[in-house]
Amino acid sequence: FFSVSQFSKYGKVLQADNTKRIYISFSVKPKNGMGSLMQPHQAFILFKHSTGAEVFYTADVQTGGKYLVDINLAKAHKDFEGLSGKYTAHLIIGDARIRTPMDWPFADFTLTIPTVAKMVEPKSHRVEYDPKPEIKHLFRQPEKRPPTVVSDAFTLICLAPLLLLLVLWFRIGFNFGNMPASAWTLLFHLGLAALFALYFVFWLQLNMFETLKYLAGIAAFTYLAGNRVLRAIAEKRKHKTE
Question: What kind of membrane protein is this, topologically (predicted)?
Answer without folding.
Answer: Multi-pass membrane protein
